[in-house]
Amino acid sequence: MLQFIFLAFFALFVSASAGAAATIGEDGLHKEEWFSTTFRDIAEDIAEAKAQGKRLAIVFEQRGCIYCRQMHEKILSDPEVRDYIKANFLVVQYNMFGDEEVTDLDGEVLTEKSAARKWGYIFTPTIVFLPEDAGARVSVSKAAIATMPGAFGKWTFLNMFRWVREKAYEGSEHFQTYHARIIQELRNSGKLISED
């Protein structure tokens, strides 16, 4: 009887964990339940993020991208990373080759794929961090605070989100210096054995 109760509890735990994992959408992209679905009007998304006390991050992905899969399975599944991003960012997913309509900050209406070309994003995943306010009517590529092209390990990934959230880009500490400092602090405290 005790064995049956244990197995039932284990099955419940596994199904609950699986429910939190990313799923694959009809477009072939991994979907996190906490990603935001919007009308992809960048100025409106920046305003919505600000209203929630967050920052806007756009993530470009594509069907079959092994690095996107790794980002979802190894990085975004980590509770420390996931919880920090959920609490501090409104994340909107774009399909690098998609046809959904996008309104750039300069007012131009594009498809996702033409926006990727216009903004110069050619790798997936690419995460684009936008300013707190829409500001001047310039293209996203000119307005972006930072861009993270490609897949990175946990600490580089998380520290980029922290660097943006803390507005460290406004100071003189370059991201690489910031990242190295945080890694050293984690090592010194014994909280980090290997970087990623």
TrEMBL record:
Gene3D superfamilies on file: Glutaredoxin (3.40.30.10)
Superkingdom classification of source: Bacteria
CDD domains: SoxW
InterPro entries registered for this protein in UniProt: SoxW (IPR041737), Thioredoxin-like_fold (IPR012336), Thioredoxin-like_sf (IPR036249)
Signal peptide feature range: 1-20
Keywords per UniProt: Signal
Keyword Isomerase part of the UniProt annotation: no
Membrane-spanning ranges: none
Entry keyword Signal: yes
Annotated Pfam families: Thioredoxin_2
Domain Thioredoxin-like fold: 49-133
Protein name (record): Thioredoxin family protein
Species this protein is from: Neorhizobium phenanthreniclasticum
